[in-house]
Write a structure and sequence with these properties.
It contains twelve helices and 23 strands. The chain is α+β, with helices and mostly antiparallel strands. The strands form six sheets. Strands 3, 4, 7, 9, 10, 11, 12, 14 and 15 form a nine-stranded mixed sheet that branches. The protein is globular. The termini are far apart.
Length: 542
């Protein structure tokens, strides 16, 4: 931070003429662009006709004049609201992009009168309205208020001058939002069922802010940068944290996720350590990934050649400023590559450490055993293998038998074995018979998911993963295993009472079975497209 007024003045003189261009149909007028004012406020210049950007997951998104005009409203409202600053504006843009793709959506099925106000289309998520998909029933405002972009932006920011007096909470009403990850802060306001998806739009939000104000720098790297290089041969392995700084907290293997409370497979080992503790390269190697992403937060991946085999180690949850290497860098065992943080899906400062057999996209193996085998640690080892990663998976699995129809009242609610909630007898029958046939699948069924249209809260839906964590693409072996499960459920849908399946960006329903798998158009990222898990909904009634 600049400490002297003269240095600050010099910086402003130097920075004001700078305009960063992005891919837009009509370039921003340089004379209209303004420098950031003290306190982080920004001024909007000319609004482009079109802007093209890339999400963190590599998807291209094109925003037109209407969407960018709404973005300008969000920027101007944030700029005039004390305490928001540039980060708060980016968070608001991320939320609106995620919730509505920056569109003012009516909802005529819930509120017919909403269609009478200026809008960019009709939404259908419960009774949600507008840019931020705010619900009148949750106290965000009246239909007339929520169909006003200026009101929605003010309600999202909240604070002492906000329209809702802190209930529901806007961004400024969230204690410590400035210390949260941007996606985490957006989730704290929106209380969405899919908290990871906001981070996907941070690069787009940054590009919008740059295009409309001419301030700031281009957004972060859009996708992991994979470097194709022969891994460096390594002669030794070291523990990835300095001695005496760490405590093992969560080992490799099945667990209840500490944030989602869903059953999942932990693909690495967690070591608690003070924020800022140096993270060390476990072996000589070449950096293949250095990025700031969703669930992992700050992530570094290094490929090594050890004992004639290609391996990779991954180091997650650093803060964005705590990554000290770039793709293509050659590193040595024990080199300081990053700092411990708590970004992404994290509950406190720690290192999530992974070992991948075969390289950057290889199979997950137990890091404790790998470190022990190379005399770098003396840790308790896991005795499990991630689902879908047995070499003899297909042979070992064999051909599952035919399932049996549900017995008793199919809609009676019973305890959900995967959570503390309840699910229907039919869904529990599907869970038990599928898990028996495919014991390496991991399940999460009941989930409250307020503010969303979903069968999870009423006990008629489960999500199934195959060894990968939510937010991570399955490996080829896990993907193959996932298709085995999916094909079996589809084949026996009538007997099991399966209503529909969503998997790999496609949806199949028993009622429209003759159409086969259709494109699932509601997904916007790896989780909402269901690339990382299979969704199962069962029918109600006999």
């Amino acid at each position: 931070m600049l400490r002297k007024a003269i240095a600050g003045l010099a910086a402003l003189v130097l920075l004001c003429p700078m305009v960063v261009l992005v891919s837009v149909g009509l370039l921003v007028n340089p004379s209209a662009a303004s420098c950031a004012a003290p306190g982080g406020s920004v001024q909007v210049g000319d609004i482009p006709d079109e802007l093209t950007s890339i999400t963190r997951h590599g998807e291209q998104i094109v925003l037109g004049k209407a969407e960018l005009t709404h973005a300008a409203t969000i920027i101007e409202t944030g700029s005039s609201t004390e305490g928001v600053g540039r980060d708060g504006i980016v968070i608001a843009l991320m939320a609106a992009l995620t919730e509505s793709r920056m569109r003012m959506l009516a909802n005529t099925s819930a509120y017919p009168e909403s269609g009478e106000y200026p809008n960019d289309g009709n939404g259908s998520d419960n009774d949600s309205l507008g840019l931020f998909q705010m619900r009148p029933a949750s106290g965000w405002g009246t239909v007339a208020e929520l169909m006003d972009p200026d009101y929605q932006a003010a309600a999202f920011y909240g604070g002492p001058d906000g329209p809702n007096a802190g209930s529901p909470r806007g961004l400024l009403d969230i204690p410590g939002w400035e210390q949260m990850g941007k996606g985490e802060a957006a989730q704290a306001v929106e209380v969405s069922a899919f908290p990871d998806r906001y981070d996907n739009y941070e690069p787009v939000a940054e590009d919008i802010l740059t295009a409309l104000t001419g301030s700031g720098e281009p957004g972060p790297t859009r996708t992991p940068v994979l470097v194709s290089a022969e891994p460096v041969e390594s002669g030794r392995v070291v523990f990835p944290l300095p001695e005496g700084t760490w405590v093992p907290t969560s080992p490799f293997g099945p667990r209840t996720h500490p944030i989602t409370a869903e059953q999942s497979f932990h693909t690495g080992s967690d070591f608690s350590a003070p924020d800022g503790t140096p993270i060390l390269a476990a072996a000589d190697g070449t950096v293949t990934v250095s990025e700031f992403s969703g669930g992992y937060g700050g992530l570094v991946v290094i490929e090594h050649r050890i004992d004639g085999k290609t391996m990779a180690t991954a180091y997650a949850h650093s803060w964005e400023h705590g990554i000290h290497v770039a793709p293509g860098d050659t590193v040595r065992a024990g080199q300081h590559i990053a700092d411990v943080g708590s970004s992404g899906m994290s509950t406190g400062p720690h290192l999530h450490f992974e070992v991948r057999d075969g390289g950057t996209d290889g199979e997950y193996i137990d890091p404790a055993k790998w470190l022990n085998d190379h005399d770098a640690a003396d840790l308790d080892e896991s005795d499990v293998t991630p689902p879908g990663q047995h070499e003899d998976c297909v042979t070992q699995q064999g051909t599952p038998g035919d399932p049996a129809p549900v017995e008793g009242d199919p809609d009676e609610l019973v305890d959900d074995p995967t959570t503390d909630g309840q699910i229907t007898v039919r869904l529990r029958s599907v869970y038990e018979q599928t898990l028996t046939a495919f014991p390496e699948s991991t399940w999460a069924c009941y989930s409250p998911r307020p503010g969303t249209k979903s069968e999870h809260p009423i006990g008629r839906a489960c999500d199934v993963a195959f060894g990968n964590a939510i937010g991570q693409y399955p490996t080829p072996a896990q993907l193959e295993y996932g298709w085995q499960v999916t094909d079996w459920l589809q084949e026996h849908a009538e007997t099991l009472g399966v209503e529909y399946l969503i998997w790999q960006g496609k949806i199949w329903s028993l009622a429209r079975a003759d159409e086969g798998w259709r494109d699932y158009t509601r997904g916007t990222d790896i989780t909402t497209r269901h690339d990382d898990h299979l969704h199962i909904t069962v029918r109600e009634g006999a």
